[in-house]
Design goal:
Layout lengths: L15 E8 L12 E8 L2 E5 L2 E5 L4 E4 L5 E5 L12 E8 L15 H9 L4 E3 L1 H14 L4 H17 L3 E3 L11 H17 L6 H7 L4 H12 L3 H19 L4 H7 L5 H12 L3 H9 L2
Antiparallel strand pairs: 1-7, 2-5, 2-7, 3-4, 3-6, 5-8, 8-9
């Protein structure tokens, strides 16, 4: 699986790049790049990986990430079915920190924007009314050109910099560039786990895929993902369980086994550790919204 570390590289003739992404599924490759990225999901569901965070995504999600923060919006398996009529839709904006000039970020007028860029190194998820306004402005920006497009981008950044309606995503920033080899290896792991999480996955399986010993793989994965491999698999299963709890009427016991857990008690325990609620509490809270 070939990584695309710099797929978003901005042409020298442009200040920024904006793209409308309308495909069968979002890019399934875990990657990082040197640009800031603002991305909104307009259509599609799946699992989102940003830094060391794992979460289900759905339409309306608005995310701002800084340079070198690895990320992946992995569409649900149904989107990869050749006979599927499902589609994804989104808007992405890429720009560099010095998109307005080499030294402008040092000026007093840019202090608030500089703070926004610092926060983005952990990834930001916007909420509430500001999110709605930013998405609308991004949809307008798709159709603008020239100076009007730059002014619109600045308005978006001003709104993002001035709001407190956001949440940090990753527990830590990722300041080092991901090289090709590391990205390829992690893509193998992510792809394998997402396809097989419904059954027991032995550490030896992944170690063999990466030509490592189980001990070496365990140490490697923990360093790169800021969590043990077992925790990573558990989070994948629990995020899928959250989706089933809110989108189906399946009994909790059925969802437990559907997501790869062997016992209901272990499912309840691990679910509460990650979500801070039991599956029953989570479902009840969703239904009462």
């Amino acid at each position: 699986m070939k990584a695309a570390l710099h797929k978003s590289e901005i042409p020298l003739s442009h200040i920024f790049v904006i793209r409308r992404l309308q495909e069968k599924y979002f890019d399934p490759v875990w990657h990082a790049h040197s640009e800031y990225q603002l991305f909104v999901v307009l259509e599609g569901t799946g699992t989102r990986f940003i830094g060391d965070s794992i979460k289900a995504f759905k339409p309306g999600e608005l995310i701002f990430t800084g340079p070198h923060l690895p990320h992946l919006w992995r569409s649900d398996e149904a989107y990869f079915n050749k006979k599927s009529t499902l589609r994804t839709d989104g808007i992405v904006i890429y720009f560099n920190e010095h998109f307005l000039g080499e030294h402008i970020m040092e000026k007093e007028e840019m202090t608030v924007l500089k703070k926004l860029f610092t926060r983005a190194m952990r990834g930001l998820e916007f909420e509430g009314a500001p999110r709605t306004d930013i998405i609308r402005m991004m949809q307008e920006l798709v159709h603008l050109q020239g100076i009007q497009s730059v002014v619109q981008l600045l308005r978006i950044l001003e709104l993002m910099a001035g709001t407190k309606a956001f949440r940090y995503i990753s527990s830590r920033p990722y300041e080092d560039e991901y090289d090709q080899h590391e990205t390829d290896r992690l893509n193998i792991v992510y792809d394998y786990v997402l396809k097989h999480f419904r059954r027991k996955i032995a550490l030896e399986e992944l170690a063999e895929l990466l030509h490592m010993t189980p001990t070496s793989f365990s140490r490697y994965f923990t360093i790169k993902n800021n969590k043990p491999f077992s925790r990573f698999v558990s989070e994948i299963r629990i995020k899928h369980a959250c989706k089933l709890l809110t989108e189906t009427d399946d009994p909790i016991a059925h969802i437990c086994y559907e997501c790869g857990f062997n016992t209901l008690s272990n499912f309840n325990k691990q679910f509460k550790e990650v979500v801070l609620k039991t599956p029953a509490e989570y479902k009840h809270e969703f239904l009462s919204i």
